[in-house]
C-alpha cells in the first residue's frame, strides 16, 4: 500500500514568549510559499489566539437551528471579511456569557480549534474540520485553525487540565485525522503549542514520540499505524538565550532523547551566531550536553525585525536581506529535508 506522507511540525517551549507562534507561523508561510499545503493549528488554549494578532478571515459555517455551528457540515466555500469575523467573535463572547455551560455542544461562530477538539472528545471521531479553516486577509495560502481567546472559552478549556490524562492528545489526534482525510492536498500540519513542557505540550510530545517510534496508536485513537497516512514529526523546542530558559530546555531535550530523537532545540532571537551559542551552551551544561551529544544539535534563529513583520504579514515575499536570513530559517526548521 502506498502511504501519503504528512509532516507534523510542532513548536513548544519551557518559557512563554520565546517565539513559538512566530516560528510556527513563519514555518507555515515558508511551506505554502513552496507550494505545499499547510494547516497551522493554534493549540494555545490559555488566552492568546492567532486571530487576535493576525488579520484572519473566518469561514462562513453551516448553523444548526439553535444558531450553533454544525460541526458535521461540509465547507460552505464562503469566507467572511475581517470585520465580519471580528463582529462574530464579539457575538460568540456574549453568547458564551449568557449560556456558557453548554459550550461543548453548542459552539457559536466563528469556529475555533476548541470546537473540533470538543467534538472529538465527545464522539471519538473528527468533526468536519475542513469547514472550519480560516485564511489570512492577504491570502498566503496557509490554512489557519486559531484557538479562542474569549474568556469563557479559556475558562472552559481548564477542564482539559482536570480530565483524564491524554483526553486532550486523543482529541487532537482525531482532529488532525479529520484534516488529513478531508483536505486531500494537505501536506503539512504546523502545531503551535501552549508555553511549558507539562500538560498539553507533554501530551503532544508523547503523540510525536509514538509516531517517531512507529508504535501502534492506543485504543480510541485514529489507527494511524495501520492507515493510509504516514505522519512524519518534525519537533522543535524553542528557547531564548536566557540561561533560566536554555538550561531547562536543554535538559528536557537530553532527557527526551530516547523517546523523541529528533526534538531540536532552537535558540530564537540570537544575536551572536552559532559558534558563540554552542560554546556558551557547552560551558553552561557541559557534561550533560556531552553525555547526550547535544551541543551539536542546537541551532539558532537570528533576531530579525523582518521575521516579526512576516509573522503579521500575509505576504511571504520580503526584501532581499530578509530572504537570505529566511533561507537559514528554512534550513533550521528542516523544511528542505525530504520526510
Ligand atoms: N527571531 C525573532 N526576531 C525578532 N523578534 C522576534 C523573533 N521571534 C519572535 N519575535 C517577537 O517576540 C515576541 C514573542 O513572540 P511569540 O508571540 O511568537 O512568542 P510565543 O512563544 O508564541 O509566546 P507565548 O508563549 O505567549 O505563546 C513577538 O513580539 C515576536 O514578534
Ligand atoms: Mg504563542
Automatic annotation (TrEMBL):
Example of a GO MF term: ATP binding
Name this polypeptide is given: STAS domain-containing protein
Alphabetical list of Pfam families matching this protein: ParA
Coiled-coil regions, chain positions: none
Domain STAS, residue spans: 270-329
Keywords, in A-Z order: ATP-binding, Nucleotide-binding
Source organism of the structure: Sorangium cellulosum (Polyangium cellulosum)
Amino acid at each position: 500500500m502506498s502511504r501519503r506522507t504528512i509532516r507534523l511540525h510542532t513548536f513548544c517551549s519551557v518559557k512563554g514568549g520565546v517565539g513559538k507562534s512566530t516560528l510556527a507561523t513563519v514555518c507555515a508561510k515558508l511551506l505554502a510559499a513552496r507550494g505545499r499545503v499547510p494547516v497551522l493549528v493554534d493549540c494555545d488554549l490559555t488566552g492568546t489566539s492567532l486571530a487576535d494578532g493576525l488579520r484572519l478571515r473566518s469561514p462562513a459555517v453551516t448553523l444548526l437551528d439553535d444558531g450553533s455551528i454544525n460541526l458535521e457540515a461540509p465547507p460552505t466555500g464562503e469566507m467572511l471579511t475581517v470585520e465580519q469575523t471580528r463582529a462574530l467573535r464579539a457575538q460568540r463572547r456574549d453568547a458564551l456569557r449568557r449560556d456558557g455551560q453548554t459550550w461543548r455542544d453548542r459552539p457559536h461562530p466563528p469556529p475555533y480549534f476548541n470546537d473540533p477538539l470538543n467534538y472529538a472528545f465527545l464522539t471519538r471521531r473528527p468533526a468536519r474540520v475542513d469547514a472550519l479553516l480560516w485564511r489570512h486577509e492577504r491570502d498566503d495560502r496557509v490554512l489557519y485553525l486559531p484557538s479562542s481567546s474569549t474568556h469563557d472559552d479559556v475558562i472552559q478549556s481548564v477542564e482539559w487540565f482536570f480530565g483524564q490524562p491524554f483526553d486532550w492528545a486523543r482529541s487532537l489526534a482525531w482532529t488532525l485525522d479529520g484534516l488529513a482525510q478531508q483536505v486531500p492536498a494537505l501536506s503539512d500540519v504546523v502545531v503551535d503549542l501552549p508555553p511549558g513542557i507539562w500538560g498539553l505540550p507533554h501530551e503532544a510530545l508523547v503523540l510525536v514520540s509514538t509516531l517517531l517510534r512507529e508504535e501502534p496508536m492506543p485504543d480510541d485513537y485514529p489507527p494511524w499505524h495501520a492507515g493510509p497516512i504516514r505522519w512524519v514529526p518534525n519537533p522543535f523546542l524553542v528557547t531564548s538565550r536566557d540561561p533560566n530558559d536554555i538550561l531547562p530546555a536543554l535538559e528536557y531535550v537530553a532527557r527526551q532523547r530516547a523517546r523523541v530523537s529528533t526534538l531540536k532545540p532552537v535558540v530564537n532571537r540570537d544575536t551572536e551566531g552559532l559558534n558563540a551559542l554552542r560554546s556558551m551552551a557547552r560551558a553552561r551544561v557541559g557534561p550533560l550536553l556531552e553525555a547526550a551529544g547535544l551541543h551539536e544539535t542546537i541551532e539558532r534563529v537570528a533576531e530579525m525585525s523582518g521575521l516579526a513583520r512576516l509573522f503579521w504579514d500575509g505576504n511571504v515575499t520580503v526584501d532581499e536581506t530578509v530572504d537570505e536570513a529566511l533561507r537559514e530559517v528554512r534550513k533550521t526548521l528542516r523544511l528542505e529535508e525530504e520526510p
